[in-house]
Amino acid sequence: MLVGRQKRAGHLGLARSNRVRTAADVAHRQRLGAGNVARMHTGFHPFTNAVENDCLFAYESRCKAAFDKIEPVLREIAQFQHDSNFIIKAQELARLLLNLELPEHLLENTWIAPLEMGKLYAWCVFETFRLFADEFYSDKPLAQESDADFQHFIESCGFHTVDFSPCADGRLAHTISYVLRLPYKGVRRKSYAGAMFDVEDSLQKWVEVEHRRLSESLPNSASEPTRYLKAAVYHYSSSLPGQEGCAAHGSDAAKAAEGAMSRLLAFQQGVQNSFCCGASIDLMLIGIDTDNDAIRIHCPDASGNPDGENYIDAQAVYDATRHANPADSERIISELIEQKSSAASREDNRGLVKFMARLLFNNISQIDYVRNNFNGCYSDIGHQERFIGMGVGFEEVQLRNLTYFAYLKTVEQNATDVDVGIKIFTGLNIKRGLPAPVVIRYDYHGNVPGARERAVAKVHCLQQAMAARFPEQTQQGLIHTMLVVRDCSADNSIEVVGGSTQPGVTGGGH
Amino acid sequence: MLVGRQKRAGHLGLARSNRVRTAADVAHRQRLGAGNVARMHTGFHPFTNAVENDCLFAYESRCKAAFDKIEPVLREIAQFQHDSNFIIKAQELARLLLNLELPEHLLENTWIAPLEMGKLYAWCVFETFRLFADEFYSDKPLAQESDADFQHFIESCGFHTVDFSPCADGRLAHTISYVLRLPYKGVRRKSYAGAMFDVEDSLQKWVEVEHRRLSESLPNSASEPTRYLKAAVYHYSSSLPGQEGCAAHGSDAAKAAEGAMSRLLAFQQGVQNSFCCGASIDLMLIGIDTDNDAIRIHCPDASGNPDGENYIDAQAVYDATRHANPADSERIISELIEQKSSAASREDNRGLVKFMARLLFNNISQIDYVRNNFNGCYSDIGHQERFIGMGVGFEEVQLRNLTYFAYLKTVEQNATDVDVGIKIFTGLNIKRGLPAPVVIRYDYHGNVPGARERAVAKVHCLQQAMAARFPEQTQQGLIHTMLVVRDCSADNSIEVVGGSTQPGVTGGGH
Questions:
Q1: Are residues B219 and B269 in the same domain?
Q2: Do the beta carbons of residue A97 and residue A148 sit within 8 Å?
Q3: Which tens digit of pLDDT belongs to each residue from B204-223?
Q4: B86 lies in a domain?
């Protein structure tokens, strides 16, 4: 996934002798020949890609530090707000420590009124996010395995599309790029509180995907016997299971798994009942321990669907393969899966098991990532998001605990997702007098006339709906918003089109 | 369309000698042989289907009378609310005059508190609507031209789907079944204030339709060179152009046409830019004079799209064909269209012109309908809707001025459509102390698991959003709601799942 992957130590990809080798398989074999870099790092699992881990950690640390410096720097700036050369000193500090030019309209008039610290704080968070997004789209810090390679790989597993719905919880925001080490562009990601994804929205997406296959043979021809894979990702906390699990399911891992599973089955049956010709989809259910990012993947049952009770734990795979040869990884992990589930060894589950094996293999790197950089358990095992993201988009957010992200088109129909976000930020910020910074976003297809204007209208509409839902916090400046749109047909960065910290806007209002 | 159509007098359908005759064409030729019933009604246009007109008028009169009796009957009931045998007398009157059994919970306690008349009124409107819907789905009073016949006809015009977006104005609610005399099941209808339809929603629908053609060859195979026809229907008032036109466009017919046209072009370009292989759609722009239901259809310009400036008026067609032979109707009307537009005679516009000719032909019956039953101009040239319908569904509403209908999934993103409705009912009801009855509706596909539960949740959510948008009117009982869902995959009637007039609900609240 990373540029560093070119030097990837071990990687799933050695095709079993009885399987067809895809182009991606061959590429992976070549990478294996580059030698096992991980072995040079004492204590690492032989499957771990230590170089990739270093790159990912550098990126995560740098980005988060940019956000985390804001509060201490503003605390310092607050101290001399009554000095005669306040603006000059404040700008110097901000430039030096935050790499930001503060907005003059928020620095003026301190001789007669106190600095609007909450607003300035929100402005800094928004501006830091804007710079972060710009870098993401211009420098591509999470450079990916080529789209074609990944597409070849999933097709070799029998899928043409993989669609993940993790929980909206910020501790899962890095699920794709870090925990599962998948290329973010190759995976659809739509987050919902409790992973309770919208079945009708998914059905619509399924139709879009199948239409494209039928009409344009993209990503592959509809005559290929591949399927749409829908995965739901729930979470739990092994150290504080009753407190730091999923709020939407009362911090109960079994209920979280059940809830996600019920949506998966509804989606599958919806496809089967609504379309002809044996249309169906494959399902996957994954749990993440948010303490250490170890995953569990539910094994297929007799019907091929995830078994709610029976899963394979990446930590167990980690331990069982502690001294294995990376070249044998796929075979060894597949065997471990088959030991857990007799159905896994069936011919028609072979592709699914191959994909599961890849995810478990990839997750071993992440287990070492947390082990090496955080002593095996995050210090922020609870919420530590820096801002709320709501709307449609946010491809650039691939970092843990950076964003509480709710995928939605209206507050009205997704109030739960928004309420959970504000509840989290009441604990994190509002109770300390700091506002909850909310980035309201709508990605649009620039090739549809008027789409940008409608996206702009939509973010304004969402802003109004937020103000109507949280009138007190908005009035008191305890919720601030930045309105952002992005043409997702082009490869541009985001465009800021409004918000409560802009010149001429008073309070947190709109 | 009606059962009466079997005796249809004159009908478009005589294929020109150089055209392929479809099954529908042949069926229409056979009907022509039944003789021209219209000629027997003095003063009717020879193309008019007088039998159908009679059936339609009987249905319209009967349905509307059921709603219109409510207020006078309740006025009478109000007079003896303090009598000792009040409930018995009220029920007798209601049974006799309204065919309703009034709900006991709204009749009790009149000795100590005045009758909640507004609530009782809303309840009666809702119950009348429920009975109206039940009749619609069980008795099928608007029995249709067979689906297959109509599908054959539109395919002979080069279309596989026709999708109409009229204005949400109640004076256009009968557009499909009356004004244009098309079978309501054969036409997609989604209403928006000002006919300003949602481009992204239409794109989604287009993908669904094309997917079904590609995967199931329904309604026809994707290899057939037919297209999706999108029509927008705006309106104006010839007698009071500055007052009784479209409120969403400041009662300006030119602006209404322009607004609708801009959405049509955006949709067309959206399809062209988003999909490959020469994907496109055909467009049609229609205006309705709400005084007398005469339509104008904009002629194709050089590109084949509707010309904003150049249209053909059904009244002019009516006059020009006053003495024509119905058997020649298609040829004569096509020639009139070609006189208005040189582009209309082009080979690639032939199907479009054929469809236009059919609409103009059908509209002649409606012109006579208004002439015969309303002296050529409705007495209710302004708003006279009986209730507001909002949400997804309302296939059964095919009557003029019965319902202000807003197609929407949330109040948040379609606030304009809702606001216009409440504004209309402020004039009609609220200023007289009568509540605005609002039917909140969500049709669902029963073959998708959980779809009914989600539809029920959605109507409750819409009810809350209405209460939040109109808190005073809700509090004062000046907006009442009935919550309704329907499984549109089955052929059942509606199901009432809640509302403000149900037992145990106080005020207009929820």
A1: yes
A2: no
A3: 999 999 999 999 999 999 99
A4: no
